[in-house]
Design brief:
The protein contains nine helices and three strands. By secondary structure, the protein is mainly alpha-helical. The longest helix is centred in the middle third of the chain and has 30 residues.
Length: 308
């Protein structure tokens, strides 16, 4: 509690008959409390990582143009795979443009150490390229849709597959922005569980569905699905040593993801479409609304009811 100075004056005046006694000011130093300043470690990208982002951005853009050109060379009934694949690299192009220009990146702080009194003693500030998670959340379901249509998976299996994929990406995003390491590894574990379901749906049920197709389609699906699953297995490993354990710098993380993205999107796309075009006789053809729009039969027309 703070006591006003005039109270002391009144007490002194009453005890000394109205005479004021001289006061003495203490020369002792005023005690101060110095807060514990935590150690801060910064992990930022350099010019190497920045150039890598621009290179991949250009590759994604050129691949998109190539896929759209390939789509124009086939009948509209055969363009489903072309359009889906072109959308994949187009989204990736926009994502890498955002990361290269500094729009799709944030500086995230993670607590490394705390004292017994829960005082933060060490933190790390690392760049997190959140634009790639938006990229993955949109492009990986499209990529799985390519493989699902190729194998002939049922609608129920496709829905479960895509749901598991979205859960995997979102939990990875939550892990990247966790406050401490314990939370991050918890979200990482959820992402790995979702990935195991993707492996089951695509690896087991996909092979079972494609068994009813011709031998060339079965061999092709087995090869390209295995290629995809191997690449996707490397992604969580990179996350674990980069964003998770922070054992590698941001530039190495950018380069690793860049190589994986190029293989999983443009290389995957050209492999899929070139093989698909060579199997034109056996590849599925989509007509109806996809090719011709709504027919006049059963369509709503304004004014028809007024003449009745």
């Amino acid at each position: 509690m703070m006591i006003p100075d005039d109270v002391f004056e009144q007490v002194l005046g009453a005890t000394s008959g109205g005479r004021h006694r001289p006061t003495h000011t203490s020369t002792l130093p005023i005690p101060t409390v110095t807060p514990d300043i935590p150690k801060v470690y910064h992990q930022l990208s350099t010019d190497v990582g920045h150039k890598t982002l621009w290179v991949v951005c250009v590759l994604m853009g050129l691949s998109s143009l190539g896929f759209y050109a390939m789509a124009m060379r086939v009948p509209v009934q055969k363009r489903l795979f072309h359009i889906i694949t072109a959308f994949i690299t187009t989204i990736a192009f926009l994502s890498y443009y955002a990361m290269a220009t500094g729009t799709g990146v944030s500086l995230h702080t993670t607590v490394l150490k705390e004292s017994k009194l829960h005082v933060i003693t060490e933190v790390v500030k690392r760049q997190v390229y959140w634009a790639r998670y938006i990229d993955w959340c949109l492009t990986t379901p499209l990529l799985l849709l390519d493989l699902s249509l190729l194998a002939g998976l049922s609608g129920a299996s496709i829905l479960v597959l895509i749901f598991s994929d979205v859960v995997m990406i979102l939990t990875g995003l939550f892990a990247a922005f966790s406050r401490n390491e314990g939370q991050g590894w918890g979200w990482y574990a959820f992402a790995c569980i979702a990935f195991l379901n993707i492996v089951y749906q695509l690896g087991y049920k996909g092979r079972y569905a494609v068994a009813n197709k011709d031998n060339k389609t079965k061999v092709f699906f087995g090869a390209i699905s295995l290629f995809t699953l191997v690449l996707w297995t490397i992604y969580p490993i990179v996350w674990g040593v980069a964003d998770g354990a922070r054992k590698v710098n941001v530039d190495s993380e950018i380069i690793a993801y860049a190589v994986l993205d190029v293989l999983a999107k443009p290389v995957f796309g050209f492999w899929l479409l070139l093989t698909h075009d060579s199997m034109a006789r056996t590849s599925p053809s989509v007509g109806g609304f996809w090719a011709h729009g709504l027919s006049t039969e059963g369509a709503l027309r304004v004014g028809d009811g007024e003449e009745a």
